[in-house]
Amino acid sequence: MFNNQLTHTKQQTSRVKATFRPIEIMQITPGKILAQINSPEDLRKRDRSELLQICDELRQYIIDNVSVYGGHFGASLGVVELSVALHYVFNTPDDQLIWDVGHQAYGHKILTGRKDSFHSNRLYGGISGFPKRKESPYDAFGVGHSSTSISAALGMAVASKYKGENHRQHIAVIGDGSMTAGMAFEAMNHAGDIPNNMLIVLNDNCMAIDPNVGALKEYLTDITTSHTYNRVKDEVWNLLGKMSNFGKSAQEIVSKIENGLKATLLKQSNLFESLNLRYFGPIDGHDVEYLATVLNDLKDIPGPKILHCITTKGKGYALAEKDQTLWHAPGKFDKITGEIKKKVHATPQPPKYQDVFGHTIVELAEQNPKIMGVTPAMPSGSSLNIMMKAMPHRAFDVGIAEQHAVTFSAGMATQGLTVFCNIYSTFMQRAFDQVVHDVAIQELPVIFCLDRAGFAGADGPTHHGAYDIAYMRCIPNTIVFSPMSEQELRNIMFTTSLDDFKELKQTISIRYPRGEGVMPNWKTPFEKMEIGKGRKIKDGEKVAILTLGHIGNYAVKACEELANEGINPAHYDMRFVKPLDEAMLHDIFQNFDKVITVEDGCLQGGFGSAVAEFMLDHDYSAQIKRLGIPDRIVEHGEQIELHKECGFDPEGIAQAVRDILGREKVVYSSNIVNLTMN
Ligand SMILES: Cc1ncc(C[n+]2csc(CCOP(=O)(O)OP(=O)(O)O)c2C)c(N)n1
After folding, report:
1. Residue positions annotated with a catalytic role
2. pTM score, two decimals?
3. Domains, the chain, ordered by start
4. Is the pLDDT of residue 453 over 80?
């Protein structure tokens, strides 16, 4: 299994442009046949009998690369056979293949010309961890967020038909987790109602990141395990294959028999068939030759259809098959021992913000029976799994259903419950209307915890939590807060869990970043916070730095560096974008005519904009420099690399202070470039 040679070289990769650090490349040699496959055309020239070996080599190449460079893991291993069979049978890129979410598309990337650049996957300047239209013509649609594939494939199918390109095939590959989202059902509802020949491949591994949830999962299991149905279905399948040679009416008769069979033998009549999608399967998604045969047959069957494939997440790497959640994205690991590589520290380290959330909600809920927790499919990512384990009846994973998560929380809030609804900032974009319509207009005090706010890092632009400050602060009845430390996160959670918070009749967005905070001893006693009150971190002169949230720790470092140069800015942690601490802002604008704002969010409409609006509304006229995420798509990389690129890493902040003061940098000792978020 581990037969590939690894040779160790240190060099700058040619694909990696504008990196801030050289990348250490471990050259990984693909297997014999895979080495000769540089495009799906090469694959299609191979004999069918070689497909098995190609799958082995592809799987191995993924294991070798992810173990050394990190990334998503189990999902790509689970679709190795599907990736090979799909590119073998369909004429990609003319036939359009759309991967849902895209975290499972490593095999697809390797087969479609990115084998040699795969070592740069998810690295700054390297290839993206998700399909991306700019990157390859084989990436028919850009993804990252789930459940878009059926809509996109349907749009392409309709466009092809309209343009008379009737030979083109359109295939959406979607996981059972992603199938739980409303968008997937909206698309199927439409697909069953208009002429198209789209194929949906349902990759059913019973998992999302955590075990998949919901009634749909039970339904799919029912289909998969109904022995009678599966036996008779195979016979009908064979018949269908034969009858397709006898013209349309013969096919229709067989199809009717098949439908009747599905309705009779399955507990519920077939969900997909009732949406006018012809259902095929379930079949073994790891039998590559059979997959190729079935996919080939389906090419000739008109109308929208769904092929149900059963796969194992992590297939071929025993540990990943066993603990599928851990191996969804394990980070770098020793592929022989399976040991996941973690940084070893000599001293206690600060916890991740997500864990502070996870432990604190349990701590509060133990004292307060009104507290409930909600997550849309991110129990381990948000650490709500801690509460789900401790209090299963009070913490809910609702599936990949952000909109539902928000309105479900609103429903509970109408009944006087205190609901912490934890959604990644980027995924909350999906539920904007629900926040306005179901929460804010109805003055419901739902507490939103927006994890991964700011740059998400290696997941890139589909996952950056760039916009939440702007889209939350424009909604009436909404408080927008960001903690600079673990203590502030705990205290705001405590404050909002108290009954008098409900009297404000406002919702709150508590945004915090991916990764660790700053306090190894984070379990501080709870203190009530005053809503809309900032704090002064340090006095200073000539220039005031106003920060929001964790990024304020960069400003602390910047001030330390500037002190060495005799520059002494004041620093304020504003904490709230809404309501702004107006008393503090009056004081600032009366005493400073140079102000720098720093936020890990989009500049358009964000925290700096709020400060500038305040200045205009109150007839102050300071010089304001706003630091934050510019109005362009920022690609993937480590958080610190992206902060640096956008000019709000510690050195960027220090430089902004020098610039606004017209001062040159004094270069006598500088360790500032090595500073990180911690
Ligand atoms: C809208 C949205 N919410 C949450 C996520 C986070 N997420 C990434 S993969 C994943 C699980 C997807 O499950 P499934 O489609 O079954 O694919 P599998 O990983 O099992 O192959 C989730 C919840 C996302 N990408 N998009």
Report:
1. 313, 402, 430
2. 0.92
3. 34-226+266-328 (3.40.50.970), 353-511 (3.40.50.970), 535-667 (3.40.50.920)
4. yes
